[in-house]
Write a structure and sequence with these properties.
Distance between the termini: 33 Å
Helix content: over 70%
Strand content: under 5%
Structural class: mainly alpha
Largest sheet: none
Shape: globular
Order of helices and strands: HHHHHHHHHHHH
Number of helices: 12
Number of strands: 0
Length: about 290
């Protein structure tokens, strides 16, 4: 299979995940959704784990990477659904490709002031979209959570790409279980110690359990594996572009497949469009910084 095809398949899978979480799983605690997705993903990959392919230090690196890339990311990403509808969660994930490029460049000891302009415009775009909701501050809490999630996911993509390319003899499937172990440990401890609740959503309906199983095994388990595997054999530019492609597809699915556009006023839709244009302009500027 072409490595780019891994990214294409994952992009299509993830496009519907935002709407499923924000609509079908409404009423299920976000942290329990994160716990179950990662636990199911870990269970799916544990049989492929090859203990002898890595030393103790490398195992620790992968577990720590999983705690950041998937544990921190999922914690913030899922909590964002408490404050935002799914199409805005999708929209605010648009900064991930910018962070991928920035983190990669910083690792190469490069940086451009264009990135600061891009970040400023991104916040302006968010303000345009939800200009009528400043009083509640919910939108800004959700926006902030999504930026932590974006940074965590971007860091993980860049770090795993570098780690794996330095060890071409190691099979992706033989080590990926370590990442999920780190992620599960992180989210479970947060759920138990910070939120003081069970990681298992015992009140979920059969339909919701079906969605959780799909999200855990396919969207998270297979999706993250395909994404990181594809990312190891493509350029940072291609990886960044595919991060971009997820956003419009996910917004379209949330708005029109899951019906979040129903009941929206013309003014709200105009603000959404205008703010989206400003955010996309920020991404173009970020890409210009990369090429300059």
């Amino acid at each position: 299979m072409s490595y780019m095809l891994y990214l294409i398949i994952t992009t299509l899978i993830w496009a519907f995940s935002f709407g499923l979480i924000g609509n079908t799983l409404k009423g299920v605690d976000p942290m329990q959704v994160a716990d179950m997705r990662l636990l199911l993903a870990a269970l799916a990959f544990l049989p492929f784990l090859k203990i002898k392919q890595t030393n103790t230090l490398e195992k620790g690196q992968l577990i720590a990477l999983g705690a950041v890339q998937y544990g921190v990311m999922y914690t913030c990403y899922m909590l964002a659904f408490r404050y935002l509808p799914s199409h805005l969660v999708a929209l605010f994930s648009v900064f991930t490709p910018l962070y991928v490029v920035i983190i990669h460049d910083l690792s190469q000891r490069k940086f451009s002031p264009w990135y600061l302009l891009a970040a400023t415009l991104s916040v302006l775009g968010a303000a345009i979209i939800k200009a009528d909701e400043f009083a509640t501050q919910d939108m800004w809490v959700g926006f902030g959570l999504m930026q932590i999630a974006n940074l965590s996911f971007a860091f993980g993509q860049v770090y795993y790409r570098s780690w794996k390319n330095a060890r071409p003899e190691v099979n992706n499937s033989a080590i990926f279980g370590f990442l999920y172990i780190g992620a599960v440990l992180f989210t479970t401890l947060v759920t138990l110690l910070v939120f003081n609740q069970s990681p298992v959503p015992v009140d979920a309906t059969p339909k919701q359990w079906g969605v959780l199983i799909y999200l855990g095994l396919i969207a998270s388990g297979l999706g993250f594996f395909f994404w990181n595997k594809g990312g190891t054999k493509t350029t940072v530019g291609v990886l960044s572009a595919f991060n971009n492609a997820v956003v419009p597809l996910a917004m379209f699915a949330s708005l029109f497949v899951f019906g979040e556009a129903v009941g929206g006023t013309t003014e709200q839709l105009v603000r959404l469009g205008a703010g989206s244009v400003v955010i996309l302009t920020a991404l173009v500027i970020g890409k210009r910084a990369k090429s300059s």
